[in-house]
Fold this sequence. Notes:
By secondary structure, the chain is α/β, with parallel strands linked by helices. It starts with 18 loop residues before the first strand and ends with a helix. It has a 7-stranded mixed β-sheet, with helices on both faces. Strands 1, 2, 3, 4, 5 and 6 form a 6-stranded mixed β-sheet that branches. Helix content is 39%, strand content 16%.
Amino acid sequence: MRNVTRRPLMIAAGAMAGTWFTGGAKAQQKEILIGSQCDRTGPTQLVGTVFCPAVQDYVNLINAKGGIGGYQIRINELDNNYQVPPAIEEYERHKQEGIVSTLIWGTPQAEALNPRLERDHIPGTSPGFGSAAAANGIKYPYLFPLAATYWSQAAAAIKFAKDKLGDSLKGKKIAYLYYDNPAGLEPLPILKELQDIEGFDLRVFAVPPPGVEMSAQVLDISQRYRPDFVLAHLFGRSPSVMLKAMKQSGYPLSKVLGFVWASSEADILAAGGWPVAQGYYTMQFVGVGDDYPVIKEIKAMYQKEGKPPPKEMATSVYYNRGIQDAAVHIEAVRNALTLTGGKPPTGADVKKGFEMIKDFTLGGLLPPLQVTAADHEGGGWVQIFQVKGDKMVKATEWFQGYRELVLRKVNSTS
């Protein structure tokens, strides 16, 4: 059963510390409630309409196996349209229902909700978005990126470029093509520090919102600057625009690496399909494709119900990220129940549960996450995939880039 709620939501009575009871003549059923915000109707709906069903599928799989520690997990999803006021309103509704944690949707929303998370002692996750500084669990005690932040992505991108260019970047030219907003600007301090360390020439090319026109930038890159490698930190419709423009300019996509929001099957299809994107490298913080035990279990669950596998699986980048976000919440709840001896956990208990996550990989779908009270990022791991034929093929194992530099930046955040 899917637990999706559209706005407005009537607040149910009787919530107690995250435990719900379905009663009447039936036996009482213990439930733990997790809040989930999504965008199925706003500007990031291309992600949300794949990511959010995956969250529900994973929770349904866990409940079909009997739940966690005698509790069923209930995900209550609300659509915030990628807007801050609805996100705040929906968080307050979820809080009154008794959530013990919440899946956040959107960088502005994460920034707006963080003070409330701290006030209410309710942990929230922002995998692959939000401020990179939130990796610092001491200064952001209730916010958990739990995936490579933009600082870690930038460092990993430089390490990958260095490996591809003969293990030296001295004298090489690196272009940084980015969406001109706070998220696009965030990697720049790391890139500039690495420029000084590695001795490469860095030139930046800003793409103004909404990112649908970048012919001048691509012309500058491909015909004038002619870099040895291009890093593309783009979002929304802009990755597909970039892929088409690079292809038309003649610049080899085997020298282009897209950060995590420029790296889905949807971007490639919107650019004109797999032939357009041949050679393109994509950065991922969750595995790509369906060759993972948990994905096979979800397919089997649908088969047992007499249904075909969900069509959302075809966009595996976003679908698998939805699995990741749901899975870390449930793992945190599992850990929290060990702390409480099986009693209903509070948000503070679940926070500690997040900070106990260690070597949680879901059979290779996730990197070896190591979350502590100080490190809410989990290690800053990424994999690189390359477009070959009609799929993305893994080009690296999980790796980190310049981890000491990134941690120094995280720990110096005020």
